């Protein structure tokens, strides 16, 4: 009996492994994505995120096929410090948008461990109600080694979600830091979640993040924290008046909400809608998308060059030797880098 059981287990394992090795047909996936098939959408995002060369070839074919059906959504970036309640806020906003008959996709980026390189990817658990709604698609991805807490393939995932008919794409980052630049460069609207009564008011007045934000939202404005949230909103509003007018001609505003109690969500959507009306009428929306395309073209080139460099067997060998020499004090990081670059350039 145990022998038969093991045999069944081995057969099942072989079947699963064989299934994983089979790459779905690109044209079939394109057709299913455009029909709104979430399984095909997930498979295609997985192919786009894969580093395997054969997967990348299929992913590029899928992206090319989906491109004519993309660029028709509103892309909203949502960031804030860990603990500010991003997942709870996104679920509340998502459920409200669905009540308006909108289809939404959530691209949630989870931090990756620098030790194990793993990620929890628990956003579907934290957004339990939203994850079971047929009008919503939630895709958690690991940030990997990319700076700023944005997965390198998030841009491609946006295109695929748009082709699948999702009208609003919500991009949740791991938290503030260098993530603002990357999120800002792939979204139409940038929303910054803040906390009151946690020393966050002073941090929020720093120029970089404040200048990027189109809307500041004081979350957890409930219970005993209501008064503190009101004071924080007043402080942030005054700070915003110190900054020059944005290129979009939009004047950022401060809102308060309690995501857990579903309070203030409709007012936040009203502000986003007002912003969209303005930037569509003055031409900023389209111009900003063009700038973003240029940014991601350059970023893709840089990432590709980096991958090509480090995957070169000769560079790997030379790097190992130069690291040993570096540790013995026989060279400097700058000399070693120049030597590696010369070796790489001589082959091209």
Any low-confidence stretches, pLDDT <50, length ≥5? 112-122, 145-150
Mean pLDDT: 84
* Strands side by side in the biggest sheet: 3-2-4-1-5-6-7
Q: Distance N terminus to C terminus?
A: 61 Å
Rg value: 23 Å
Note down, in words, how this protein is organized.
Strand 6, helix 12 (226-240) and strand 7 (253-256) form a beta-alpha-beta unit. The protein contains 16 helices and seven strands. Helix 2 (26-34) crosses helix 4, helix 3 (38-49) crosses helix 4 and helix 3 runs antiparallel to helix 8. The chain has a seven-stranded parallel β-sheet with strand order 3-2-4-1-5-6-7, with helices on both faces. It is an alpha/beta fold.
Short structural description:
With 348 residues, the chain is an alpha/beta fold. It has helices at 2-21, 26-34, 38-49, 53-66, 86-99, 123-126, 128-131, 154-163, 179-184, 200-204, 207-212, 226-240, 265-282, 284-311, 313-327, 333-346, and strands at 74-79, 104-110, 136-142, 168-172, 189-194, 215-218, 253-256.
Key structural traits:
single chain, 348 residues, alpha/beta, seven-stranded parallel beta sheet, 16 helices, globular
Topology, element by element:
Elements: H1 2-21, H2 26-34, H3 38-49, H4 53-66, E1 74-79, H5 86-99, E2 104-110, H6 123-126, H7 128-131, E3 136-142, H8 154-163, E4 168-172, H9 179-184, E5 189-194, H10 200-204, H11 207-212, E6 215-218, H12 226-240, E7 253-256, H13 265-282, H14 284-311, H15 313-327, H16 333-346
Parallel strand pairs: 1-4, 1-5, 2-3, 2-4, 5-6, 6-7
Helix pairs in contact: 2-3, 2-4, 3-4, 3-8, 15-16
